[in-house]
Amino acid sequence: MTKPDKQILVCGSFRASGEPQGVCDKKGAIGLIPYLQEELNDRGLDTISIAMTSCLNMCDRGPVMAIFPDNTWYGGIESEEAIDAVLDALEEGEIAEDYLLN
Fold first, then answer.
1. At what angle do helices 80-91 and 33-42 cross, to 10 degrees?
2. Which position among 33, 48, 87, 102 has the lowest Cβ density within 10 Å, counted as fewest Cβ atoms?
3. Mind listing the pLDDT tens digit for each residue in 58-98?
4. How far is 46 from 19, CA to CA, in rounded Å?
5. Residue 54, SS3 per DSSP
6. 61, burial (CB in 10 Å: exposed 0-12, middle 13-18, buried 19+)
7. pTM of this prediction?
8. What pLDDT band is residue 23 in, cutting at 50, 70 and 90?
9. Residue 42 backbone class (left: φ over 0; alpha: ψ -120 to 50; beta: rest)
10. How far is CA 33 from CA 3, 17, 49, 97, in A?
11. What region, left, alpha or beta, does residue 54 occupy, with left being phi > 0 and alpha being psi -120 to 50 degrees?
12. 6-99 architecture in CATH?
């Protein structure tokens, strides 16, 4: 495996104690990871990796997803349609404005 060009971080809402506490987990962020991986594969975006994180401290805007090294943060990623919008924008070198966190 080669080093990825980009990494997508998906908030898992986990705190230091190891228990999910925030909005992202409660709104199903972790359950969307298989779809996200499938879409990356289907689109040939094999230089992008996915990692689930502990709490990203943006609970009021969750589920949260961040793309690095771009440092682009998205919120309200609650559906496959939201993931599609983010990946469409990523492929086009753009930003999915509807989900962008400022």
1. 40
2. 102
3. 888 989 999 999 999 999 999 999 999 999 999 999 999 99
4. 31
5. strand
6. middle
7. 0.89
8. confident
9. alpha
10. 20, 23, 11, 21
11. beta
12. 3-Layer(aba) Sandwich (3.40)
